[in-house]
Amino acid sequence: MEILELDARELSYPEPLERSVQILHRLDGFNCFHLTIHRYPRPLLMIAEKLGIDFEVCGSDEGGWHILFSKGGGEDLRELMKRYCSV
Amino acid sequence: MFSHGLSLDQAPPLSVIMRFFLTIPFFGVLAAFGILFADVQNLGNWDIPQTVAIVHLLLIGVAAMAMIGALFQMLPVLAGAAIAEPLYHARWTHLLLIIGTLMITAAFYFNTYIFMHPAVPLLIGSFGFIIYLMLSKLAAVENKTPSVVGMMVSLSSLGAGLLLALILTAIFMGADFGMEPLQLRSLHLRFMLAGWIGTLVMAVSFQVIEMFYVTPPYPKFVRSFFPLGVLFSLLLYTIAIFADSVIASVADVMLALLFLCFSLVTLRRLMQRKRPVADATVWLWRTAMISLLLSSLSAILHIVAGIDGAVHFFALLFGYFVLSVIFAMSYKIVPFLVWFHLNAKGVLETPLMGDILPAKAATLHLWLHWVLGVCGLFLLLTPYAYKGIALLLGAGLIIYGVNILRALKIYNSLKDKGLL
């Protein structure tokens, strides 16, 4: 499975949201999107839910967040998230 | 790991916030007309009914509309406190606030005190319900962050200020509670300016300055103790004003110092942005914080050195601070909301936020806002500078209204093109 990566920790508002939504529209069931971000992006997750995109979230060791998005991800996302988070 | 607990239903419809924001230019222009046609010799006297009317047009019609609109949006997003049926509640409270504000300001401006009778229940009813609705939601939030605590202090202060307004109005109409109206007025304006507006700006800043401008977070001490410090100072003042004028002055200085320190910390945070690009909103925040700093210094000069004229600078600079924050926040919130709601509808042609409210439009308003500030300095020379202030205030708010309407027009033109 292809993983689209975006590290938004150094990006200033609103770039993390705008770039993430652009990537969400590229998800097709054969890829997923890994976002690393310094703040919990509640609006982005609301949009993802509305677009029917599954996601898993976990806190990073540096106080930020790892988020995995996919279309129809289900259990695979949880497995994949273990790469980034041990919890 | 978690993936649940979110719903787009938590975000209120765009029209909830926009109805409040679109009312801002209407009342702002009315206030500008009020200043333009008032006797300039009387405008420096804060007890003259015409001045009271203009102050309430700005503080209810502009500041409260902006803050209630923003709270409807921020409670679910920043505090995780969703409001049920937000559109229904926004509709009726907004309507009552408009009618109540028009009536109370007409009562003062035109000396038609018959309007005071219906205005009071309309304002108390709408504000009271908003306080109940939002405080009950915030009280139920499990994770009481400093922003949540700050919002609770702010709404509680609004409630106290409203109660004082109710008592003052009753005294004005002839009731006798055995209380001194001037002391009650002092309490009313402190709870409204420092408690309601000042603390809300603090609470919101703790979240948005770091989020919008990628700055380090506010120091823990500031976040944890400043809103509570304002509440403590207000309570101390409330007790002291009836007993000991020295302690009341100490409470006043404490309030001024808290806001002075807050403005310095915020200015420092804005200097620590990871991205050095400064858009119009960064400058509006800087303008707001410099105004708050000077306003706080003026208050201290008035209290400690007994300089009477300083109280006018305190009031005018505080007003300029409030306007600057409203413009700074609106120019971030409105494009975000248009972008957010279009994306939530699956509109693939959703423009970038920078195209929804172009930098050029906000910058034009910023320059006009600065000219307004410079015009205020001419009050040192002549009270006729109020005429210039009126024209610049009105022009600035018309530009603000056009900018907000332009963003709304983009939303309306694209909202039916969504895939969802």
List the helices and strands and how they pair.
The complex is a heterodimer of chains A (87) and B (420).
Chain A: E1 2-7, H1 15-24, E2 31-37, H2 42-50, E3 54-59, E4 65-70, H3 75-81
Parallel strand pairs in A: 1-2
Antiparallel strand pairs in A: 2-4, 3-4
Helix pairs in contact in A: 1-2
Chain B: H1 14-36, H2 49-78, H3 86-109, H4 116-139, H5 146-172, H6 181-213, H7 220-241, H8 245-271, H9 280-305, H10 310-344, H11 353-356, H12 359-377, H13 385-414
Helix pairs in contact in B: 1-2, 1-3, 1-13, 2-3, 2-4, 2-10, 3-4, 4-5, 5-6, 5-7, 6-7, 6-8, 6-10, 7-8, 8-9, 9-10, 9-12, 10-12, 10-13, 12-13
Low-confidence stretches of chain A: none
List low-pLDDT spans of chain B.
1-6
Average pLDDT value of chain A?
86
**Strand content range of chain A:** 25-35%
- Our Rg estimate of chain B from Cα atoms comes to 21 Å
Tally of separate domains of chain A? 1
Backbone structural class of chain B: mainly alpha
CATH architecture of chain A: 2-Layer Sandwich
Distance between the termini of chain B: 28 Å
Helix content estimate of chain B = over 70%
Strand content of chain B: under 5%
- Mean pLDDT reading of chain B: 92
String of helices and strands of chain B: HHHHHHHHHHHHH
How does the helix and strand content of chain A classify structurally?
A: alpha+beta
Secondary-structure element pattern of chain A, one letter each: EHEHEEH
Coarse shape of chain B: globular
How large is the count of helical segments of chain A? 3
Strand order of the largest sheet of chain A: 1-2-4-3
CATH class of chain A reads Alpha Beta
Number of strands of chain B: 0
